[in-house]
Write a structure and sequence with these properties.
The complex is a heterodimer of chains A (238) and B (279). Chain A has 238 residues and is of the alpha/beta class. Chain A has 8 helices and 10 strands. In chain A, helix 3 runs parallel beside helix 5 and helix 5 packs parallel to helix 6. Chain A starts with a strand and ends in a 6-residue tail after the last helix. In chain B, helix 1 runs antiparallel to helix 6. Chain B has 2 domains: 152 residues, no CATH class; 80 residues, Alpha-Beta Plaits, CATH 3.30.70.3040. Chain B has a 4-stranded antiparallel β-sheet. The relative contact order of chain B is 0.16. Chain B is an alpha+beta fold and 279 residues long. The longest helix of chain B has 44 residues. Classes of the chains: A alpha/beta (238), B alpha+beta (279).
């Protein structure tokens, strides 16, 4: 379970990232984080992997208290939380297989266990046939699927996706969403930040709407609301 | 390359001064253990004159021990010292070598008094006062240690800085990979270990090459060193043969100690850089 209790994050110069967010996400939920660019979605996701620490409030991710845990043990949290990025973040000098195998290697799994786990997730994302290719040889959709495979190979309880379809065409975006949905049906909590209205409206999942760092809406079968004209005048960078 | 070269220079210089310091300490200990005064008699003088002198010295109460070395005993000792050099053994008989009396004072403050007594005695040809030798050797040993220590320290600091810079550059080059490893849950040790190991390798290789060169140089000039250090028992055993157990064991310990120290120094330099550039 993830619990935000009056969580705020301010950047140097007192620039607000997120302000006074209170919300709870139970195990196995699929949640969209929606809002315009600069609203605080990425800040929120970075807090969940302790890449940032809250300035105020309390943030619990299962048994981890993000604020009070030491930075030296953050890697243990990150092994339970998979994350997918808009820019894929793949290692260009490693094949698809090797990129995904990075996680079981780090976790100390045996070669046999690692190979089995990697092949399982590559089958899930339909990249088993392309396991020996390098990222430069893949399409953007295939790169994102590789990134998803790496994020889930360790069997994380939570999967974070920061605008995973941001660089993809609509058809490819839908295929990525299908994979994320399939991962969710297997019991993983999925939190996806996006400003793709079409996807949000199509899936009708719980949505947390963030604007200017604040949680303005929490809807169980939400849809993407277009912000008011006055709010569009004040974008803030994360 | 720069990192390995700097480590090589550090350990080469430190090694030279370390070996010189060890040798001078051995020589110093040898002379400190010797009788403080050695009296050499003329060719015609012998046991009678020695016994008379010994009796005179004992009445002063300033002498703790004396030992008479006869001409025959001196010849035996000379033959043992130069057994590997037949040329030096030719034509040398007991008649040529002087008898001697070795004297140890009950207190170093009596040495000059004893020298005065023996200098005027019958049959005395030469008085060797070891204290001057000891004093000079001590000064040299201290100078070698001081200069060597300062040089080695400066070079070690230089090595640490260069290794730190090299590792910092490697961290910058691998910034993306490090970010990904951090995000997927690699422990700090997993991320840092390869860099620390690399730093250690620079030290290991630099120190190893320097050690091999130093040992090689000693093997090359061994016979020359033996010719004037063979009087020192500990150094004679070491330098007698390049394949002797003592030499091989000492070389092995020297080499192993250096590469271990080199690895630790390199790893330390690397860890300093990581502390600064990898957070």
């Amino acid at each position: 379970m993830i619990r935000f209790t009056s969580v705020s994050k301010y950047y140097p110069g007192d620039i607000p990232g997120i302000v006074d967010i209170t919300a709870e996400i139970t195990d196995g939920e699929f949640v969209f984080l929606i809002g315009p660019s600069g609203s605080g979605k990425t800040t929120l996701l970075r807090l969940l992997i302790r890449d940032l620490v809250p300035s105020e409030g309390e943030l619990l991710v299962d048994e981890w208290n993000i604020d009070s845990m030491s930075s030296k043990s953050a890697y243990l949290l990150r092994r339970t939380v998979g994350i997918v990025f808009q820019d894929f973040k793949l290692l260009s000098d490693r094949t698809v297989f090797e990129n995904v195998a990075l996680v079981p290697e780090i976790m100390g799994k045996s070669e046999h266990e690692a190979q089995k786990a990697v092949m399982n997730v590559l089958e899930l994302v339909d990249l088993a046939q392309k396991r020996n290719l390098f990222p430069q040889q893949l399409s953007q959709g295939e790169m994102q699927r590789t990134s998803i495979a790496r994020a889930i190979v360790g069997g994380p309880k939570i999967l974070l996706a920061d605008e995973p379809t941001g660089n993809l065409d609509p058809a490819t975006s839908l295929s990525i969403i299908k994979i994320l949905h399939e991962i969710h049906t297997l019991g993983t909590t999925v939190i996806m930040a996006t400003h793709n209205a079409d996807i949000v409206n199509r899936l009708k999942k719980r949505t947390l709407t963030i604007e200017h760092g604040r949680l303005v809406r929490d809807e169980m079968k939400g849809k993407y609301h277009v912000p008011l004209k006055s709010e569009k005048k004040h974008p803030k960078k994360e | 390359m720069a990192a390995t070269l700097t480590m090589f220079l550090t350990f080469l210089v430190a090694g030279v001064f370390f070996l010189a310091s060890m040798a001078s300490v051995s020589i110093l200990q040898y002379f400190e253990g010797k009788p403080q005064i050695t009296v050499f008699f003329t060719a015609k003088a012998g046991k009678t004159e020695a016994e008379a002198l010994d009796a005179t010295l004992r009445t002063t109460g300033k002498v703790s021990a004396t030992q008479f070395i006869s001409k025959e005993e001196a010849l035996t000792f000379y033959r043992e010292q130069n057994k590997n050099d037949p040329l030096l053994l030719e034509m040398v008989t007991a008649d040529i070598l002087p008898a001697s009396l070795e004297i140890s004072a009950s207190d170093p403050k009596y040495l000059s008094d004893i020298v005065q007594i023996v200098s005027g005695s019958e049959g005395v040809d030469e008085v060797v006062y070891q204290q001057d030798v000891v004093r000079s050797l001590l000064a040299w040993t201290n100078a070698i240690r001081l200069v060597g220590g300062i040089l080695a320290l400066l070079l070690a600091v230089d090595s640490l800085l260069i290794i730190g810079t090299v590792i910092a550059m490697k961290v910058a080059l691998k910034r993306d990979e490090i970010e990904i490893l951090t995000l997927v849950g690699a422990s700090p040790f997993t991320i840092r270990a390869p860099f620390i190991f690399e730093g250690g390798l620079y030290g290991f290789s630099g120190a190893g090459i320097a050690s091999l060169i130093l040992i090689g140089c000693i093997v090359w000039i061994r016979s020359y060193l033996f010719s004037f250090l063979s009087a020192i028992p500990s150094l004679r055993v070491l330098l007698e043969s390049a394949t002797s157990t003592a030499f091989l064991l000492s070389s092995g310990i020297f080499f192993a100690g250096n590469i271990l120290l080199g690895f630790c120094l390199g790893a330390f330099g690397s860890s300093i850089a990581l502390r600064r550039y990898l957070r």
